[in-house]
Amino acid sequence: MGKWRYGVILDAGSSGTRVHIYRWLNSDLARDKADDSSLHSLPRIETKKNWTKKIHPGISTFGDNPHDVGPDHLEDLFKHALETIPSKEIQNTPLFLLATAGMRILPPLKQKAVLQQVCDYAKKTTDFQLPDCDLHIQVIPGETEGLYGWIAANYLLGGFDKPKEHDHGKGHHTYGFLDMGGASAQIAFAPNATEAEKHANDLTLLRLRTLDGVAAEYKVFVTTWLGFGVNQARQRYVKALVASSPDTKELPDPCLPSGLKVTTDGKSIEPGSDAEKGKAPHLVGTGKFSECMRQAYPLLEKDKPCLDTPCLINGQHVPAIDFDVNHFVGVSEYWHTTHEIFELAHKDKAYDFKTYQQRVNEFCSQSWEEIQKGVEKKKWGKKVDETTALEVCFKASWLINMLHDGIGVPRVGIEKMNGGYNGTKAVLDAAKEKGFLDPFQAVNKIDDVEVSWTLGKMVLYASSEVPAASPEALAVGFGSNEPGLPKDFQLPGGTYLPYTASDDDDWHDNLFSENPRRIPGFLIFIVILFVVGFLLCGRERRKQMRHKVRRVFGGSNAPLKRRRGFAGKLFNLGSSTPSYERVLEDGTSHNSFELGSAESYSDNEHSDSSDTSQHLGRTSGWATPQINAGLVDPSTPTYFDNNILSQGQGLGLSPTTVFGSNAMERGGLMARTESRERLAGLGRRSRASSPSRGRSPKMGWLKEEGD
């Protein structure tokens, strides 16, 4: 068991599945390294940006063909996880696939078939820890998704670990959580003491455990509104438009920019279609945002009877929210709709109703032609395409209705807070600097970490691996707000895993185990450093190194086999006898002779190619001396004695051209070889400018650092 614990969660949503990979220190090691403050904190979860991967579409599309979900959907996600996590930790790594809204709409039998295939495929193709498929692979209800999101938000904001720094008054130090997708919306918050006592039976008991083994309990209200996601709300809106004018084929839509015509499902009207001919209903944009707001309001269904007061929307019970102490963060559609267009130049700014509505009005009052030109010029950023621009006016109206008329968030910029706090600036200061004290703030990331409910699930799991401080301590998990362990109490699945020093990852584990693909790159880097060091150490040192290498490989008197590869050239290990080379050179290079071995390198010598023949017979062009007959003993045999005339003819050169007195002036090519020892004995030295070549080659995103 290594010092790092890993976890894999697949978020199986309606539009696609995303794999999230997290890691944390073994609880024993984390406790040993923790200071007093950290001991009272939850385990520190780490992740990286490239540890996530998403593919489309969602697994719910495999309802009719469940056997295809493995090879056609999960294979790439599993491969990504297996390549990221050290191979020796795979068997110790829990795998979860938790499906949300997309799978909830499938019939139970189809749900079961898809989940069974997921389990079978995971067990057949991976060694991930998967002891109980019913626990690890399931469709989770919206309430569970909201609770996990609440854990993630408070974990990142510091509401759990630093309660004194997040004291909102009345003994309250946690944040509320809002999530909105395409099909549903969730809310989760801890009511104030008065409301918590009054509505105790409506709360969920959550139990975590800090590194010192002490339990931390929270009582949270969580609910979900099915059909209140932006896409479902839009469908209900269009359905109401058609029902209000059943005989009208051209329906005015104030939530669309003026001049835009689309079908009732938001598609372009095709030439020759029934919609173009006026035989089918279609929508015509009028660009009146205030009217759009008014027509979207009834979708809140606030007129439904409330059987258990108080209620917010759809007749569903929600304890009264004290916005003096309950400060909400909104993710997913709350972020995209407030920031993708309208807050592009105001990242991390707090939500201000007055300013936001002004910006929405300005955008939605433009004609569709003007908006198209802005999209083409990337006026609102690279991510904003025509589809986003088409949908955003309705989404903005729905978000405003949900926040202020539905949930009751005060309109910052217009309404005063009960406790005297207000934010009447046109654009408020950075939300981070304000400590998220506004009643609502849309977020995507906190300290560069995405606020995802999958993180909340992993925090809960890692917390369950911490050993309890006492034998009487109750288990980590969540369930009904009852003493002890209620019948519906859900365990996260983690157990205490002891750590021994012998299992510690040493330096080579940290270097190689996390990703096997690092090994070739590291070795190449070492080779490059060695080559650079060899080239820079000087001629005398290189000579000494060659002698040492010869002694290591059999002694100075032992003959070595001729080596023509890169290493042989580098150390001059080709032979124990004087080395001779034949070089063709421009005749003007008589002052460019480099005494001693001359190495030449190219990019190919550092490539991945294993073909060493590419490197044979290479010499530097400036290593060839000018012919000087006076330097050579006539009795010394030279390469010219070996039919040099025929070689010159082979080059198209006559004997006169080769040996004529004006050969060098005419820039002809000369060829010769010379014993290095004889040249060295003449006392020549290489020029000072002789060229040489060298080559050198609380939670944040996990930084690249040593483990």
TrEMBL record:
PROSITE patterns on file: GDA1_CD39_NTPASE (PS01238)
Active site: 145 (proton acceptor)
Segments traversing the membrane: 519-538
Annotated Polar residues bias: 610-621
A single GO BP: UDP catabolic process
Single GO molecular function: ribonucleoside triphosphate phosphatase activity
Classification via InterPro entries: GDA1_CD39_NTPase
GO cellular component terms, semicolon-separated: Golgi apparatus; membrane
Top-level taxon of the source organism: Eukaryota
UniProt entry tagged with the keyword Membrane: yes
Ranges of biased composition (kind: Low complexity): 680-694
Residues binding ATP: 182-186
Stretch list, region Disordered: 594-621, 666-707
Pfam families the UniProt entry points to: GDA1_CD39
Keywords: ATP-binding, Hydrolase, Membrane, Nucleotide-binding, Transmembrane, Transmembrane helix
Homology family: Belongs to the GDA1/CD39 NTPase family.
Designated name of the protein: Uncharacterized protein
Organism annotation: Delitschia confertaspora ATCC 74209
